[in-house]
Design a protein that fits this description.
Helix 3 runs parallel beside helix 5. It is flat, with a radius of gyration of 19 Å. It is an all-alpha fold and 210 residues long. Helices cover 67% and strands 0% of the residues. The protein folds into two domains: 118 residues, no CATH class; 79 residues, Arc Repressor Mutant, subunit A (Orthogonal Bundle). It is built from ten helices and no strands.
Length: 210
């Protein structure tokens, strides 16, 4: 089985534009979503794989993983997640940006799980997490949520991003932003109130488990 870097070089040789040419990637996605053009799909798939592969190989080079197999597993998982959800991306001009967000969130969630796993030898043992997740599954909801969070007041952006897009718990957000848990809960409720103004998100943010 070839390693991710070898596969990346192989696919890059076939890609008719550079990985950094997000306009070309967005155009391929537009042609695929509107016309189901098979050549556009081929280009979109190749660019997406190259972007995802390069992202996680760069993280690996930075020493971010505690397992040699982690980059390959994350590349496969992220690429599959993108394939399953990309039809929900409503604005073709944001496809490349959406892919980058999926990569970032997958990496951050993996890093958080690594931290949790490393705590299993602590005296009190690991903290059990709920089975439910705050993170929406459908691509168009994630995209709308990302855009809506960017419009929030500055003090709400970070806690809202960590809670809704990265699935952090209140105590984790509290440690990250240096605010007490009750304050984080207040920020979350204020964010929900403003996110509810976006009709695309109303059903999602009104979920009882949020």
């Amino acid at each position: 089985m070839t390693d991710p870097s070898s596969r990346l070089r192989t696919v890059l040789d076939r890609l008719p534009f550079t990985v950094d040419d997000t306009d070309a990637a967005n155009e391929a996605f537009r042609r695929w979503i509107n016309q189901r053009d098979p050549e556009a799909q081929r280009r979109m798939d190749m660019w997406t794989y190259c972007y995802v592969c390069r992202y996680f190989l760069a993280k690996s080079a930075g020493g971010n993983f505690d397992s040699a197999s982690a980059p390959d597993e994350l590349i496969t998982r992220t690429y599959r997640k993108i394939q399953e959800n990309r039809e929900g991306v409503r604005d073709p001009d944001r496809y490349a940006n959406w892919v980058s967000v999926v990569c970032k969130n997958t990496f951050l969630n993996h890093t958080r799980r690594q931290r949790a796993s490393s705590s299993t030898n602590d005296e009190e043992g690991p903290t059990l997490r709920a089975e439910t997740s705050h993170i929406p599954e459908k691509g168009f909801v994630r995209e709308a949520l990302f855009e809506a969070i960017e419009r929030l007041p500055d003090y709400l952006k970070e806690p809202a991003r960590l809670y809704f897009l990265e699935d952090w718990e209140f105590d984790e957000i509290s440690d990250e932003i240096g605010k007490a848990v009750p304050t984080v809960r207040t920020y979350k409720h204020k964010a929900v109130k403003q996110l509810r103004e976006d009709e695309r998100l109303r059903e999602y943010v009104d979920r009882p488990d949020l």
